[in-house]
Amino acid sequence: MSALGPAAVRANDGAISGQIAANVDAEIGRLLDEADGRARAVITAHRAQLDELAELLVARETLERDELHTVLGNVGRGLPSSREGRALNAALRRDPPPED
Over the stretch 5-53, which tens digit does the pLDDT of each residue have? Predict the structure, then answer.
């Protein structure tokens, strides 16, 4: 969560002060730096699996779910399945879930 809390700020509408705009810019920068650090840590921690996965994909182009789990081990476990992901995306867009 941002230190600024939930807020809606419109760009270029003249309704916000320069200080608020600077605070928003600083917080966006902080959030991006934090996300970048987490992403780099995950990639570094799982580099061997990523390299193996890349080699398999170059050789075969596609992999089945079980093959991915074999290569990645527990990396990514607990993430939604494709079906769950589509349903979640649909809910976030407030669209009906796709039919399978």
Answer: 666 666 666 667 778 778 888 888 988 999 999 889 988 988 988 898 8
3-state secondary structure labels for all residues of the chain? CCCCCCCCCCCCCCCCCHHHHHHHHHHHHHHHHHHHHHHHHHHHHCHHHHHHHHHHHHHHCCCCHHHHHHHHCCCCCCCCCHHHHHHHHHHHHCCCCCCC
pTM for the structure as a whole: 0.53
Domain locations in the chain? 1-45, 61-100
The answer to whether 56 and 63 are in contact (CB under 8 A) is: yes
Name the pLDDT band for 58 (thresholds 50, 70, 90): very high
